[in-house]
Every structure is written in C-alpha cells, then in structure tokens.
Amino acid sequence: MHDLAKTRRFGAATRFLRIVVAVLLTGSALGAFYPATPALAANNTLPLPAPNWWNGTCDGNRWANVGVPASQLPSIIAQWNGLIACGPADTPGTLPSVQETAPLSLNWEWQCVELSERYLYQRFGLPQQQLSGGSQVVDVYWSYLQAHSGAAPLTLVRPGNGRLPLPGDVVSYSDGGYGHTNVVVGTGNGTFTTIDENFNGGTTGNATWTATGGNGQSIVGWLHVTAPAISPVRGIALSSPGLFGTGKVGYYVTGEGLVRPFGGAVPVKATGLWSPGSDMIRGLVLRGDGKSGYTLDLLGGIHPFAAAGVKMPATPTVTGLWPSGDMTRGIVLRSDGRSGYTLDLLGGIHPFAIPGAQMPSTPTVTGFWSSGDMTRGIVLRSDGLTGYTLDLLGGVHPFAVPGVQMPPTPTVTGYWTSGDMTRGLVLRSDGTTGYVLDLNGGIHPFAAPGVPMPVVHSLSQVWPGQDVARGIAFEQNLAMPNGTGLDVSVDGKFAYFS
Questions:
Q1: H or E element at residue 328
Q2: What is the DSSP-derived secondary structure letter of residue 289?
Q3: Which whole number is the average pLDDT over 234-261?
Q4: Helix or strand (DSSP H, E) at 5
Q5: Listing from the earlier edge strand, what are the strands of the sheet with 268-270?
Q6: FRET label pair with 75: which of 25, 147, 334, 459, CA 20 to 30 Å apart?
Q7: CA 356 → CA 316, 333, 351, 385, distances in Å?
Q8: Rounded Cα gap, residues 79 and 383, in angstroms
Q9: 112-124 vs 137-147: helix crossing angle, rounded to 10
Q10: Per the omega criterion (within 30 degrees of 0), is the bond before 110 cis?
C-alpha cells in the first residue's frame, strides 16, 4: 500500500493533483531499499558518469513510452562534474508521472529529491532513503550515516554565523511544506550557487542562495564533504620497452594533473597542476625518452613534465585554445617529440609545436560535427601526418594533412547506435589495425579494408554495466610481435589484454 508522503519525494512546487496521478499510474507498492551498488565505484571520485539505469538522455525514452509528447520530453537543464539536472518535472494534471527505476526506485523524475539522492548514491554509494520531501534529505541521511560509521566522508552542518556550504555539499531547505534540496556547485561573496531540479517550475537548473537561504526557503542544514574528491584518471602512456622488453612500464595522469608512474617508471615533476579533486586534464603523451612528455588540459593548454635529471621540455605553442568549457579530447605527439596535434570535442584537430620547431599543417578530417560532445580519442600513424579519431559510438575516422593520401576508413567490430560508449583507441605498428576501448573496459578490434582483423585472445578485467574505463595503451616489439596492451579505470585499476 502506498504511503504517499514517503513515495512521492516532492519538491516545493508539487501539488496534490500530482499525487492522484501518481497513484493511478503506479498501482502497486514500491519495492524495498536497494543496496549501495553504484554505477561507478563509490570512492568519492568525480566526475560522475551518466546513470546507466536511464533509457536515453534524462530517461527520455521511458517518458516517451508512457505517452509524453516529444515536445515535452525532459532535457538536461544543468550539469556539474558529471551530475546532470533534468527538467521539467512531470507537469501537474497534464503529463503522466514517471517513477525512476532501480537503484532509485522510490523517486519520481525530476523532483529535487531525485537529484540529491542520485548524487549521494553515485558519488558515495549511499542507498536511497524514505523521505517525504526535500526538507528531510540532510537529516535522514545524517541519521543513516550515524548508524553506518564510515559509510561516506560527510558531516552535518547547521546554518549560523554566516557559514556557507561548499561545492559538493548537499543542502536541505524548509518552506513549511515539502521544502527543497540541491547540491552546491560554487561559493563566494557571501552567497552560494547550486544545481537544482524542480526549482522555478523545473526549467531552471541553477539557483543562488545566502547563508540563511532565500527563494522563499530557509536552510535546514547541509551534508559537508570532509574529504576532497579523488581526481579521476584521464590518460595512460607506456614507456618504450625496447626491442626485447616485455614489462608494462609507464604513467597515467589524473584530472588534477598528477602524472603517476607504474611498473617501475621513475617519478616525474609535472607543471600543470590543479587543486585536489579537480578534473582539468584530458590527455597524456610521452616523448621518446620515456621519462618526459606533456599533459593536455580541457581548454587546450599543454603542460610539460619530466623525471629528475631529464631536461624539462619547452612549453608548446598551441593553435587550439579556448577561454572556457570542456573542449579537448586527446593529444598525440610526432616522432620528433617537439610537435603534435590535439583533438577537440567536435573532431577538429589542432597542431602544436615548441618554440623553434616547425608547426605541423592542420589536417583534413573526415569525422567532424557542428555541435555536441562527439569525440573520444586520437591516434597518429608513424608518418606523423595521418591518423584516426574515435567518436563516442565507435566510429573510427581517418585524417591527413593536405597533400598526403587519406588512410582508408577502417572496419570496426564495436559500434553502437546511441549512448556515450567509447573511451579511447590505440593503433598497432602496421598503422592499419588497432583496438577501441569501451566504457566498460571491453576491447574491440578494427582494421582497414582487406587487412586481417586483429584478435583479442585474453582480457583480464571488464566492468559490466559501469562507466569506469578511461585510457588504453599498446606496445609491440620483437619479443611481443603480436603486441600486448592495458587499459586503466577511472580510479587507477589496470586490465591487460593480448
């Protein structure tokens, strides 16, 4: 039997009529709590992945399946560190109510409580709670945390003395009714900014508040994040094993710019560093010495790094640089170690070179989009003039500088019709075959027409149903003629393939 006060999860704008619609449509009691089984390992890692239980953007396909017109389907109204706010919430008396599926099946889309619970679930692995509105989120979750010591690095803070919540904190508000809840995305000048659902009619994804509240709401309290987020892994590169080496030695880079060695690689000093828990880096390349290289930030800046005793590379001059946004998706280095290319999210390729080195020509691309976040990787062939880019569905697209023959378009074995499915690609030494990495860690060969398709004989680890894979690397030499590779997860775990 429904307890409407506990199943509807209302925000401030909800009306009684919506309750009636909800009862008529659901018709049976909601299931019990689901265990904390996050879509991503709940280790305080940012950014969050898109929820893998949704069917389309903002679960839009489920809305369409219950009769919501295409013109009224929900859409993304705000984003922060992968956390997506959708809206509008179902309209009182005009549209069906859509109940979320497991693991948040007590929620209704897109109420304010849904956003806060999804954030707490995905970032910290906290299970959904019984709630009657946004005003209760902080206190109910705090009770859970007190009963489950160490479940998440969160503490309760009450308003007073001008204190403000910080980015990542979850806030509850009271208005004498159901109240409101949201997640903080910025703080400064005596105010803080939040990401919201079902606020201002569900069409506004952000709001600004003072130390006591605002917008007709007073602050109940907030859950403060006591440990900085772990920056996600954003790329991996292998040092050359030589003609006969077989060890996996190299580096991976985190979102804050730390270049971490593995397999016995020597530590390096990086020059492009951001605050702990940030997510600013989008790629990593090594120079031929295997002990120095560059990282790429999301705006197009390129930052050198080097081991002790190795000369720090010069900072390159770039041709692709943006003042804001999350714009870049990969970086490759030419064999001279002094020049290369970066890839933007639309498929554009931008040359770079250190001072005194010749700037490469801008390549002609075959995979380019006018909008969207479309690309996921780039590889360069040995000539330094041609290569391939990867789109989010698994398409592999050749590119070449003017005057050089365009490589053939490969046949791919991993291709999807929708979703954000791929996370990187590597090229074998023949320059015509390679592998694509999907978001779960799956490896999918590709090959130019008429060239035998590579075979994946073994793969040590996949993460079914989880968006965790973040980088892929591959090496071949006389000791390993068929080559071996590895990929890395968002939290620094390796999987090997051959």
A1: strand 328-333
A2: T
A3: 81
A4: helix 4-7
A5: 268-270, 302-307, 292-297, 281-286
A6: 25
A7: 10, 16, 14, 19
A8: 40
A9: 30
A10: yes
Per the DSSP assignment, residues forming a β-bridge with 447 are: 411, 433
Given a cut of 70, whether residue 372 has pLDDT beyond it is: yes
Helix (H, G, I), strand (E, B) or coil at 493: coil
Residue 96: predicted pLDDT: 67
Q: What is the chain's Cα-based Rg?
A: 24
Helix (H) or strand (E) holding 143: helix 137-147
Query: Please, what is the Cα angle at 171 between 165 and 172, to 5 degrees?
Result: 140
Instruction: From 29, 81, 51, 112, select the one nearest 60 (Cα to Cα).
Output: 51
CA distance 302 to 219: 43
In angstroms, the CA 302 to CA 434 distance is 26
3-state secondary structure of 384: coil
- Take residue 367 and report the two structure tokens written for it: 């995979």
Nearest of 115, 161, 178, 200 to residue 208 by alpha carbon: 200
CA dist 192 and 213 (Å) reads 10
Position 163 scores a pLDDT of 86
pLDDT category, 99, cuts 50, 70, 90?
A: confident
Q: How many CA atoms lie less than 13 Å away from 244 in the CB half-sphere?
A: 0
Q: 269: which DSSP letter?
A: E
User: What is the rounded distance in angstroms from the CA atom of residue 411 to the CA atom of residue 432?
Assistant: 10
In tens, the pLDDT along 431-484 reads: 999 999 999 999 999 999 999 999 999 999 998 888 889 999 999 877 778 888
Provide mean pLDDT across the span 228-250: 77
Instruction: State how far the Cα of 494 lies from the Cα of 6, in Å rounded to an integer.
Output: 42
DSSP state of 325: S
